[in-house]
Write a structure and sequence with these properties.
single chain, mainly alpha, about 55% helix, about 0% strand, globular
């Protein structure tokens, strides 16, 4: 399902950053609320603490994949393709944006504060769509004979 641009703007206007918005939209699509998770995602904002390092949309997307396919309790098992999904997302992201670093993608340094560039909205939307595509492709029931084909 495509991301609602107005919803992205609304969340950004409320002070949420790229990584938080990506997870919030994913949780909303699942009918869930997890303020602790949203709070934890704040550390990834702006390339981890607004340092301009690894893009928060990239790390948020990896977390969104983990939310759907990761191990969360002792009794759960991670989806066997979780690492493949994250790797494909990483490869797609680097090809689409030319870098994994927030500063390289934005072409400037983030200053202290909470304002987020408009460019992040389209990046969030594209990343969310890619995560949904990867989940749909990899989370289908596995064919037990797949490895022999």
């Amino acid at each position: 399902m495509p991301v609602d641009g107005f919803r992205l703007f609304q969340l950004a206007a409320q002070g949420f950053c790229c990584s938080q918005i990506l997870i919030m939209i994913g949780l909303e699509d699942q009918g869930k609320v997890a303020p602790e998770l949203i709070r934890a995602m704040h550390g990834l904002c702006g390339g981890m603490g607004r340092s301009g390092a690894t893009c928060g949309v990239l790390t948020g997307g990896a977390c969104l994949i983990g939310l759907a396919a990761g191990k969360g309790t002792v009794s759960e098992q991670a989806h066997p393709r979780i690492h493949r999904m994250v790797q494909e997302f990483l490869e797609w992201f680097e090809e689409a944006y030319g870098s994994l670093l927030c500063e390289d993608i934005l072409h400037y340094k983030l200053e202290e504060g909470t304002d987020y560039p408009v460019k992040c909205g389209s990046t969030i939307s594209a990343a969310y769509d890619k995560v949904q595509e990867l989940l749909a492709a990899h989370m289908e029931p596995e064919n037990e004979y797949e490895e022999f084909i």
